[in-house]
């Protein structure tokens, strides 16, 4: 029996993973500072209790107890910012690795982002630091890097289009992926065992921002002028070069247009 501990079960990805493990009838436990409410999982069967134990990754409180009898840990917890002079991501990953070394866990799976090794952005640097800590730990691991989830792209476009005129860097590239496909891949990795490598997973299409926003406006039934803005700075140039996209595509993922149709209805 493969028992799984999910660290970071309340986020978008964590919710999808919980739903997947429940569907597959896998024995799992979520670890967080506060008990998760059933209604915090939009995709989870609301009549099903979510197994939980208290874990504080910042202090390490509760980790040794949570790891008892666990075979696989899904490290999905993530947040921007720092604790003192270190990235939050670095601190919590180091604390988790320390506890894992004292446990009988056989596999650590870490959720990362495509392009963290190329793009100079503070949150990406934090994710890369966490990756390196895991690789250097000599623990059995697999790192799964994914491209941006549909809902994140959706929210970003909503902010860019919040004014009467939209200002869009049309040449930026993106590869939106369905969060359910990433959750399914993570589940598969729990069954295959540690790979000791980094795996990339992207959506089925690489689209420029101009195409993304055009389809977004059509399904949202929004009509307003769009002013193209130039690609400035190293971050935008990295996105324009497609450094956060990858050749490895999840063809079981919804396309961007299918996501929009499902969320906002027909055109």
Automatic annotation (TrEMBL):
Residues 8-151 form the NAD(P)-binding domain. GO terms for molecular function: protein-containing complex binding. This is NAD(P)H-binding protein. SUPFAM superfamilies: NAD(P)-binding Rossmann-fold domains (SSF51735). It comes from Spirosoma validum. InterPro entries: ComplexI_NDUFA9_subunit, NAD(P)-bd_dom, NAD(P)-bd_dom_sf. Pfam families: NAD_binding_10. It comes from the Bacteria.
């Amino acid at each position: 029996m493969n028992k799984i501990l999910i660290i970071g079960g309340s986020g978008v990805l964590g919710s999808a993973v919980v739903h997947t493990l429940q569907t597959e009838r896998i024995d799992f436990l979520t670890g967080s500072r506060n008990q998760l409410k059933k209604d915090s999982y939009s995709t989870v069967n609301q009549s099903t209790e979510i197994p939980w134990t208290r874990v504080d990754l910042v202090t390490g409180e509760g980790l040794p107890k949570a790891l008892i009898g666990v075979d696989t840990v899904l490290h999905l917890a993530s947040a921007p910012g720092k604790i003192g002079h270190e990235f939050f991501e670095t601190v919590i990953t180091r604390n988790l690795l320390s506890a894992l070394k004292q446990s009988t866990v056989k596999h650590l799976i870490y959720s990362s982002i495509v392009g963290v090794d190329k793009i100079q952005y503070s949150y990406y640097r934090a994710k890369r630091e966490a990756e390196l800590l895991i690789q250097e730990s000599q623990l059995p691991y697999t790192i799964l890097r994914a491209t941006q989830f549909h809902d994140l792209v959706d929210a970003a476009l909503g902010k860019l289009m919040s004014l009467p005129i939209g200002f869009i860097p049309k040449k930026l590239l993106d590869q939106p992926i369905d969060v359910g496909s990433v959750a399914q891949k993570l589940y598969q990795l729990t069954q295959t065992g540690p790979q000791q490598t980094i795996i990339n997973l992207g959506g089925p299409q690489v689209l420029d921002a101009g195409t993304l926003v055009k389809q977004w406006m059509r399904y949202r039934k929004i009509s307003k002028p769009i002013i193209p803005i130039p690609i400035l700075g190293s971050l935008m140039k990295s996105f324009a070069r497609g450094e956060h996209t990858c050749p490895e595509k999840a063809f079981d993922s919804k396309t961007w247009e299918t996501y929009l149709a499902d969320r906002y209805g027909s055109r």
